[in-house]
Specification:
Elements: H1 14-26, H2 33-40, H3 44-58, E1 71-79, E2 101-108, E3 113-118, H4 123-133, E4 139-141, H5 146-151, E5 157-158
Parallel strand pairs: 1-4, 4-5
Antiparallel strand pairs: 1-2, 2-3
Helix pairs in contact: 1-3, 2-3
């Protein structure tokens, strides 16, 4: 069984796709869709869509990535800007009590990183993600979050 890529339904010549890939791979920083569009002779919106397709094709398959091993640091972070309007007398919660989007980060000391969006920092949700990211022989380093104290029992060591 073959899987179709988004390039199957295009009318663009193959050389334009290959040149776009070349420009993206050999750029020391990201390449502008305006530049790619002018270089290939296509509209900017077409170049932007080509960039999205190529980036999606370059993503590694999550199952093919090896689990994190060695010393692995775990923590959660909440992303979002300051509240838009300042209202006198109203304080906005920080950290776990915030309404911002939570992200679990797992970083291996040798440089590999995994991340996932989380709805809450409950043990069940974090355990499922950590089991998918981290090898059982890893040494975990975390803060004193109660969920991590429960998860650490399944791993080789905890710092």
């Amino acid at each position: 069984m073959t899987t179709k890529t988004p390039m199957h339904n295009t009318k663009l010549a193959l050389w334009k796709w290959l040149l776009c890939m070349y420009l993206m791979v050999n750029s020391s920083t990201s390449v502008s869709s305006v530049f790619v569009g002018k270089w290939l002779g296509v509209a900017q919106r077409i170049a932007r869509k080509m960039g999205h397709v190529i980036r999606r094709l370059m993503e590694p398959d999550p199952e093919s990535r090896p689990p994190l091993n060695g010393i692995v640091e775990l923590d959660e972070k909440y992303f979002g800007g300051k509240p838009r309007y300042y209202e006198k007398g109203i304080t906005h919660k920080r950290g776990k009590g915030t309404e911002k989007q939570g992200v679990l980060l797992a970083a291996e000391r040798q440089g590999q990183v995994r991340s996932a969006l989380i709805a809450s920092d409950q043990t069940a949700e974090l355990r499922a993600l950590v089991e998918g990211f981290v090898d059982q022989q890893a040494h975990l380093m975390t803060d004193q979050n109660w969920a991590y104290q429960q998860i650490r029992k399944d791993y080789a060591a905890y710092c």
